[in-house]
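Progress narrative, work stream C.
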Amino acid sequence: MSDFAHAIARLFPPGTRVSRPKGGHLLWIELAPGTDTLALARRALTRRIGIVPGRVFSTGDTFGHCFRLNCGFPLRGELERALETLAELAKER
């Protein structure tokens, strides 16, 4: 999981925050306020990358700038390239 957190810190826009849960294989990523992660998820899906936008975890738009990411597999090869692509998409806003 720390490989993912380090890669996110290196690749994603400045100010991106990553939670490190005590268990499981998921990360909670917080982008800049105003970022629409539902739109990000839609753009990512066109590249065959799946994320869960934060607003599905709230009845409002409290987490509209956040998303959940699975990090249960080793970060290498195709998965590493997908994370790089996701970071580029996140920079587009």
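Work stream C, second folded protein:
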Amino acid sequence: MDYKDYYKIIGVDKNANEKDIKRAYRKLAREFHPDVNPGNPQAEERFKEINEAYEVLGDPEKRAKYDKFGASWQQYQRMGGKPGGFDWSQWSGFGGPGGVRVDLSGDLGDLFGGGSGGFSDFFNALFGNMGMRSTGAGQRARRGMRGQDIEHPVQITLDEAFHGTQRRLEKDGRRLDVKVPRGVKTGARIRIAGEGTPGSTGMPAGNLYLKVTVAPHPIFIREGDDLRRTVDLDLYTAILGGELRVGTLDGDVTLKVPQGTQNGRTFRLRSKGMPKLRHPDQRGDLYVKVHVRLPQELNEREKQLFQELAELRH
């Protein structure tokens, strides 16, 4: 199994703070997002790798364990150890004394049907029970105890968070359809009752919680239930006024542009943002910032007209 240098993948120093890590992640995620690179398997694989790295470095608990593991791994290598002989038992999230392993058919990193949500063997080996972090009473499995809750990270797109979606999970040969509600945010947990670890005799099983991360979008920036985006506006419409077609997550709308609109002006489109999680019929707003484009490669007549305009203005 290959060691993964998550710091190198994100492109930050090992002493980088949370803000720097998040900034580097968002920049790379936008660059390699599948919507920006359709049909490019290399970009899709890089996107998966970036998201896995941020899943670790963006979580203080996982990052602390990863840093300790990295020091141990480097010491093992300096002593001439071979990768196949490394003792994973003290690090594996699935093993060790008192550890609990839940057998879900398929790839645990791919619970939501594949794509950008998948995690590597390295991640699953190191963070198995942290990726499915226990939210119950520790690692106890004594008589008379309710089954443990488990937690696993999953990732969805902003479009899926907007429209809501459904994914299929296989467990113990059974298929479970999991609904992801409209308006879900990063950090939300979806509960699947009774699908955690079994309880002791006569006691109920725990629950399975899917912890959601909404991937960055190449166009829209999410701020709570609001969205922001930038659109190009031609010089003539900015000066004379007119209409501008603006894409939203549920289709195009027409924005009325007043005369003399300045570059960088922001327009508010009410109720064109994200659905509100507990009230999906209500929506946030979309803030549209215009970027005025100047004409290029003017012909002689156009230059003459702009010169005449300049003289009139003076």
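Helices lie at 6-10, 18-32, 41-57, 60-78, 121-131, 158-163, 235-240, 300-313. No further action is required on this item.
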